[in-house]
Amino acid sequence: MNSPTREWLSKLPKAELHLHIEGSLEPEMVFEKAAKHGVKLPYSSVEALRKAYDFSDLQSFLDIYYRGADVLRDEEDFFDLTKAYLKKVHSENVRHVEIFFDPQTHTDRGIPFEVVIRGIRAALENASKDYGMSSELILCFLRHLSCEAAEKTLKQALPFKDWIIAVGLDSSEVGHPPSKFKRVFDQARSEGFLAVAHAGEEGPPEYIWEALDLLQVKRIDHGVRCLEDEKLTERLVAEKIPLTVCPLSNLKLKVFERLEDHNLKKLLDRGLRATVNSDDPAYFGGYLEENFAQTAEALKLSREHVVRLAENSFLASFASEQRKADLIQELREKA
Ligand code: ADE
Ligand code: ZN
Question: What is the pTM of this model?
Fold first, then answer.
């Protein structure tokens, strides 16, 4: 039988490259941290909060996501948040993670940049020691805010440059094209950061062109709308630009009406370097393995498709060439 079983998927070595750490904040932890800090929540229970996770589009999700993050206030909170995510994905044999964080969501509430990054970093170091899991951190600028605000955030990041591999761009896409952030991405690349950007999630293929040409990104986050533009698709294939696709996110935010309608298989069959990721697992109903399992079933993916997705996750990562080779070797042994 060639179809992937849950057990086989679980054991398969894989990497996650599109994960917002604030999006791994489970309702139970929202309540725990709210109690710790004396924050009054507008929900009576964990179940009531979870029920509110019913979204019509990206913005309806972001409104709740930014509100949830308000309970994260000290270094221990960011440590606990990251530790819980890493523990969960370790159980799914995730061997390498690249984690987004949104400093502006916190610094705009008076939480110092260093509180956020020190908490996250400590958990990543523990995961390296305890699980042999490798990791990178990607600082995302919030695109609904100004380029000047992003530049201020970049300045705050410079003392922690060695802990951050890349800058990214997230939040409300439509109306906030990559071109708005050309200046701060130029600065970031001149400081040695790599670049990625969310593009073509809800926004048009033109935003993917801009991310490539103006921001000089190495990967496109989401990018599922690329197939609307044949020339763009040809370029992404020719240049092997990875797409970090998030199927359950796309379903919950109504980018696709049904998982059966998702274009992941088409992306793969077209020769694109597509990967599977969870985006904001606490909000979208599943961590990485669940994304693989539900998508494989809905699209009738073969084991060969899934192995290609796992291999792509390593090839698309910012891990060293040696680490990539080691992980691909592990994959070959388990597949
Ligand atoms: N921030 C967290 N998740 C996001 C997504 N899917 N798109 C844009 N910004 C985000
Ligand atoms: Zn995202």
Answer: 0.98
